[in-house]
Amino acid sequence: MTTSNVPLITPLSALFLLLLLLPFFSKVLALSAPRTFLVRHSDNHFESNGIWTSTGNRETSSKRSTTDHSYQLWTETYHTIANPLGTNLVAINTTTTTIQVNALLAIKKSIQIDPFGALANWTNEENSTYCSAWKGVDCDEMGNVISIKLTDLRLNGIINSKIGNLMHLSYLNLSGNSLSGNIPSELMKCRNLVAVDLSFNYLDGELSAGYIYTLPKLEFMRLSYNSFSGLLPEVPENSCYSLTNLRITYSNLIGAIPSSLNRCKNLTALLLDFNQLNGSIPTSFGDLHQLVVLALQGNQLTGNIPNELASLKNLQILALDYNNLEGPIPTWLGGITSLVQLYLQSNQFTGYIPSQLAFLKNLQILVLEYNNLQGPIPTWLGGITSLVQLWLGNNEFTGNIPSQLAFLKNLQILVLENNYLQDSIPTSLGGITSLVQLWLANNRLAGEIPIELGSLKKLEVLDLQTNYLSGQIPPSLENCSSLEYLLLNNNSLTGTLPFGFEDFTTLWPNLYALSISNNKLEGKLPLSSTSLNSSVVFMDFSKNNFTGGLSIQVSGSHLSSLRVLSISYNQLEGPIPSWLGDLKSLQVLDLSHNQLTGPIPQNFGNLDGFKVQSKNVSDPLGGTLNNSYAPLFITPRGEDMGEEYSYILLETTYMDLSSNVLEGEIPIGITDLIGMKYLILSDNKLEGGISPSFQFMEELEALDLSQNNLTGVLPTKLPFTLGTFNVSYNNLNGAIPTGNQFNTFDSSSYLPGNPGLCGDVINKPCVADNMQPTTNTTNNAFQIFDYGALWFPLIFYSSIWFSTVFY
What we know:
Elements lengths: L10 H22 L14 E3 L13 E3 L12 E5 L5 E5 L1 H16 L1 E3 L23 E3 L5 E5 L6 E3 L12 E3 L4 E4 L13 E3 L4 E2 L5 H5 L6 E3 L22 E3 L6 E3 L12 E3 L4 E4 L13 E3 L4 E4 L13 E3 L4 E5 L12 E3 L4 E4 L13 E3 L4 E5 L12 E3 L4 E4 L13 E3 L4 E4 L13 E3 L4 E5 L12 E3 L4 E4 L13 E3 L4 E5 L7 H4 L5 E3 L4 E4 L14 E3 L4 E4 L15 E3 L4 E5 L12 E3 L4 E4 L55 E3 L4 E5 L12 E3 L4 E4 L13 E3 L4 E4 L11 E3 L4 E5 L20 E3 L18 H30 L1
Parallel strand pairs: 7-9, 8-10, 9-11, 10-12, 11-13, 13-14, 14-16, 15-17, 16-18, 17-19, 18-20, 19-21, 20-22, 21-23, 22-24, 23-25, 24-26, 25-27, 26-28, 27-29, 28-30, 29-31, 30-32, 31-33, 32-34, 33-35, 34-36, 35-37, 36-38, 37-39, 38-40, 39-41, 40-42, 41-43, 42-44, 43-45, 44-46, 45-47, 46-48, 47-49, ...
Antiparallel strand pairs: 1-2, 3-4, 5-8, 6-7
């Protein structure tokens, strides 16, 4: 049989077969077609808080950016397909996308509180926009998550372990939240991490060497301001190649500093300050030749500064303050000529300042205070002309203040307080026109205040208190228009105040504290209607010879910020002006030991500053003070107030009107001052009774009403907080209450005086019926008379009834 050439598949059958397979090809094409992702790149690279400020917190100042890094994209995550138009499209691996979206959703799920709704659109419904619209997420061109930045959002929760699935993550910044729990070990899976900032949270648990030292690309790690426990991990061998910046401050780390940190050869900044680290500074740190910043302050480190640190020739900032280091200041420090800032304060260093420090020509900040250094202040310090801050206070320096310091034309802060310096203040200091703060308190300086100081137009702080200065206050100080603190108390200054002081609102518009107490000044106080300034917080004119009365032509609103006013121990007379009752911020008022007359103003009940209870007291610089007893205002640095200010504390509310000639009753509004802690009204001519409302002054610790003309009975209740109570030398009567606080007072609280009082505490029994003392025959005779007076009407009317009935 002959076979014919008939095609196996005819065109018609081929077309039919194609129609049958069309649905299958459609699915294949759908799976391989590129999905569209909108990819955005952040213009803001990972930012880390900078190194130091010239004053205050050195961890949180200037900002700098890390350098850009190129990312090697994995070729497995995409492929190209030629479309009919010939355009190359980028297709992203759907599996990788799903893993990343799920990781981000898991991170969100671990956040219990999101007060600003920052993660509101992190949802499955919007997962196609995770790169373009999800807050804080940045991706590369392939849709890989490379950066998460969720800072200062008050997020509360934990860091989910799924973060380890973000394999391309390079930058992670979750600082400034309320995250807690451990740092998940899965973070080690993020092998592309370059920078991590988890600072300012509540993270706890022990730290792992894995995510600190072993991530191959990690350069920046900041874990400061957390609540970790345990030791700083040792550095494994053959690791920590890329780490340049390690910051774990204020985080409760304990134990010794690992000597193996010298394996991190590229470290330029190592900040471990304000933890609880102990032991000595590792000598191996001498191997960290790239170090620019070494900050170990605020720990419990002991021993000497190791000589091996002399090899750190690139070091610019060395901060070892607030430890227990001892011995002399090393001479080799003079060989680290790159040093810009040197902090050694609050240790136990002894001896002299080494002359080799004169070679530090780049030094801008030198802080050596609170040690046991001695000898004269070196004259060669005047040759380090780059100095901006020089802190030598609270040591044992002797001699005079060298005039060579006047060569420091860039100097802004000079602190020489609490030493044994003597002689006069050099007039040449007036030539340092850049000076902002001058601290010379608590020395043995004598002579007059140089008029040349009036040339310091930028001066904000002038602290000359507790010296032997004499003469008048120079009128040239009126030219220091930037003054905020003028502290001249505890000297022997004489004469009247300069004429311009009568209008210090104009002179010093930013004045914060003025203290001229405990001198020999005279004349009238500068408290007139034109001499008030709403920025003034502290004014102390006490212990002088000021005379006259307090002006009544004043509006208390001009002193809306005033918290402390002391005019005690002068020779003032006349009434207490009512404008004092309008000082809404006042917390300390001392008018004692003058010759003031008249009543206590009724509007003293309006003193709102005395109504604020300690749990609600706020720091003048912001924030709530949690039982903080830091000194108030007498020095802006918060140290060494002096004995006469020991009672002035941030939480203290103190009113002393004692030793005057005040009359009338105690205003009932006084008992509305429920935040009052000390109320002293003794040695006046006050009269009337003691209000039962004193029991509502729940924070009152001392109440002295002695040496007045008070009458009536004692209140039956007093605040539980009351520790000192004195009503002696009055005319009170009745039984002394018992129980609660009354059981804590002895007879000196009531005697001498008060002959009408009775009670066991003063050994005068009280009669049950009328609560009168029965200690002598005279009193008994009066009692018989009193009983007769009670019975006589009954006998009289009984006799009339008897005569009517029987006669």
